[in-house]
Amino acid sequence: MSIETTVPAVPEAALGVTDDTFGVAAPEATATTRDGTPLAVAARDHLWGHFTRHSVYEPASAGGKGAEVPVIVRGKGHRIWDDRGREYFDGLAGLFTVQVGHGRVELAEAAAKQASQLAYFPLWSYAHPAAIELAERLAGYAPGDLNRVFFTTGGGEAVESAWKLAKQYFKLVGKPTKTKVVSRSIAYHGTPHGALSITGIPSARAPYEPLVPGALKVPHTGFYRAPEHLRDDEYAFGQWAADRIAEVIEFEGPDTVAAVFLEPVQNSGGCFPPPPGYFERVRQICDEYDVLLVSDETICAFGRIGSMFACTDYDYVPDIITCAKGMSSGYSPIGAMIASERLFEPFRTGTTTFAHGYTFGGHPVSSAVAMANLDVMEAEGLNARVASLGPAFRASLDGLRDLPIVGDVRGAGYFYGIELVKDRETRETFDEAESERLLRGFLSKALFEAGLYCRADDRGDPVIQLAPPLTIGEPEFAEIAGMLRSVLTEASDLL
Q1: 200-205: which pairs have CB atoms within 8 A and are 24 or more residues apart?
Q2: Of 58, 123, 136, 161, whose CB is crowded by the most CB atoms within 10 A?
């Protein structure tokens, strides 16, 4: 059954902008800075992009490729526009973030109202209503007794906070040697030094080593590349993968391990969902060895899989949840570490302090925007929408399996990865040079030129990732699949 998109049309005048504001109505007229510099030129000369290979944008005369920095100036629903008026489908919700779509006037109004009343105040021994209300709401969504909300400005900071809390907690309860943490290979958990140590991507870690000691790695749950003897039994594979956690805890010594950090659906590597029974076994292992289970839901929370917290989708109760992104749909930066009452208990009395914080953690404007965003999600039933339509989204992508370059389609909810292969029968992947030529040399540019903003990623095996706004439905699934088919057919011809 098709469910039509529930996002209302937002009059541009209500946002205080028009097409002309962004140069959308005049493709020949590129927007400029206040100094009259074309935006792409100013970006090249002054803006240091995140995870950006800048040589692409340097002039050919300087050894670069002479490409222009894409400048996105406007968003509305699931569409975005660049400074030349070209329209794209936002197939990644910005960065797994814009759950309710772009241009929601309700969120802009919430920000303006809060800023006019209390623009800023810290949570350092003080509080403000916006953070109080949001903390209460998040505690209500969280499972079990995860009632204590520590605000950050993003997911990496939330992960950093969780490791620090785990270390201090065990010191306070008389187990000071429990400091190490376990995470999965290829998994991404953030860029601060602690979070980067937990991250399992060697190429992301290498430039900044030595990192924080005590970060241990175990296999991920990518069933497509499971060991040969387990490829026919997803449950057995999940038990095997979970038991590797027990194995490393035993090897290191249970008295040295504080926490296990896992995403419900692992992002990096291309959307690895948990096999049946995996989290049940992990929870058993953590309980057996007195190790905290941290559910890193920076991407998976707030409807991406179908519930406010994805641990609910997979029926486990962690000790800590880390989250960010979709909490405010990216309209204002905010993240959180949500901890159980057990972990808060040593801080409840006496002089003990969690000596940790961020200037902008729980920012009043961000908190107000998050409340408005969650209001929209509830009013429009976006979680139920994802739960209902997720299988249709998956089916539309599964239709691409007839292409010789498509090896696997995996994920859950509105979060999918398409793994690309040289040989579908043998599952042979691309070497580094081939991946460079295919992903960066062709696919990323071709997908964008076809009108689809998404991610072509080779931090593990080459994948295309999709995580669109939660407001889209079956017509948009077909649109995404059509653009992918066109580009991947061309890519197949290049092999």
Answers
A1: 200/268, 201/268, 201/459, 203/459, 204/459
A2: 161
Examine the pLDDT at 1 and tell me if it is beyond 50.
Answer: no
Cα-flanking dihedrals φ and ψ of residue 272, to 5°? -90, 110
Domain at 12-104+382-494: CATH code: 3.90.1150.10
Helix and strand numbers, DSSP H then E, in the chain: 16, 15
Mean predicted confidence (pLDDT) in 467-494: 95
Tokens of 324: 């960010």
The number of residues in the chain equals 495
Hey, is 267 helix, strand or coil? coil
- For residues 382 and 5, what is the distance between their CA atoms, to the nearest angstrom? 10
Measured distance CA(97)–CA(198) in Å, rounded: 22
Average pLDDT (132-154) is 98
Contact present, 327 and 336 (Cβ < 8 Å): yes
CA distance 419 to 461: 7
What's the pLDDT score for residue 494? 78
* First and final C-alpha spacing in the chain: 38
CATH number listed for the domain at residues 107-379: 3.40.640.10
What is the maximum alpha-carbon separation in the chain?
A: 69
* Domain boundary assignment for the chain: 12-104+382-494, 107-379
Judged against a pLDDT cut of 60, whether residue 173 lies above it is answered with yes
Average pLDDT, the chain: 92
Instruction: Take residue 249 and report the two structure tokens written for it.
Output: 């805890």
Residue 30 pLDDT level (bands cut at 50, 70, 90): low
Q: SS3 for 312?
A: helix
| Per-residue pLDDT tens over the stretch 238-266 | 999 999 999 999 999 999 999 999 999 99
- Write down the pTM of the prediction: 0.92
Q: Is the pLDDT of residue 99 over 90?
A: yes
CA distance 41 to 34: 13
The predicted-structure confidence for 341-354, as pLDDT tens digits, reads as follows 999 999 999 999 99
- What pairing do the DSSP bridges indicate for beta strands 463-466 and 455-457? antiparallel
Burial of 52 (0-12, 13-18, 19+ CB in 10 A): exposed
Q: Which residues pair with 320 in a beta bridge?
A: 294, 339
Q: How much of the chain, in percent, has pLDDT values that exceed 70?
A: 94
Contacts of 8 (CB under 8 A, 6+ apart): none
DSSP 56-94: GGS-GGGTS--PPPP-EEEEEBTEEEETT--EEEETTHH
d(CA 211, CA 192): 10
Q: How far apart are CA 49 and CA 47, in angstroms?
A: 6
CA–CA dist 334, 370 (Å, integer): 8
Closest CA to 74 of 66, 62, 65, 86: 86
